[in-house]
Design goal:
The protein is built from nine helices and eleven strands. With 282 residues, it is of the alpha+beta class. Strand 1, helix 3 and strand 2 (53-56) form a beta-alpha-beta unit. Helix 2 (12-21) runs parallel beside helix 3.
Amino acid sequence: GAALHRERLVGHDEVGVECARRGLHLMMEKPIASTLEAADRLIAGARQNEVRLLIAHHRRFNPRINKAREVVRGGELGDLVGVSVLWCLYKPAEYFVAGPWRAKKGGGPILINTIHEIDLLRYIHGEFARVYAEVSNKSRGFEVEDTVSVSLRFRDGALASILMSDTAPSLWGYESTAGENPFFFPTNGDIYHFLGKKASLTFPGLVKVFYADPKRVGWQHPISTEKLEVPHVDPYVEQLKHFCRVVRGEEEPRTSGEDARQSLTVAMAVRESAASGRAVDL
């Protein structure tokens, strides 16, 4: 036991680099690493050993996410004005007993959960220019945050807000609403609202909101809704199929090391802003 305690923990990136050195193609869990320096080591290790690297931001394979991306990037909403994201699920006491590291700095909603939302907003709309964040640990009193509020500006000027907490019961958590994992009790509730000049869109409900008559636009006029239908596909299965194609050289990684590093950069900026009390330019 004492000998084990003296041993240095092996980093996520070190395992990946060692696998790359042995010629193994890599599908690494998100986030790509816990620091930007570690992410760079992993990316360099894959490149130097000529192996392919896919970071498992699995939500990019959810057909509802890809439909939202198609609608937003395709201009159906007009110029994007802003995005509102709400994620709140209650992590029970046993979650922290099973992994005591989860109560320490770095083990909370920012790197475990918020990075998912950051990655999806980048994937659906684009890159960020600035971030400001506030965090709180008043509910549990752990070293790590239990709640985080983030304000972001996209490079094109659109705004986004993210409110995350793992300490309150709610209907509005991706894992419960997306239907990807049967472990989570299923709920109904939209957690994303994409707001455009022409129309808006909810997620995961995929309800498009718009004025049907372009001559009658304004809050006094009737508003229409349209539910967009997509087939259910297991994103974990689709991600694994994609990785097989990546290994065979048939496709480029949907989330490359460099792409995942950018999501980590934004998450780190959230932590930096929360610690400094100032906005961080990206």
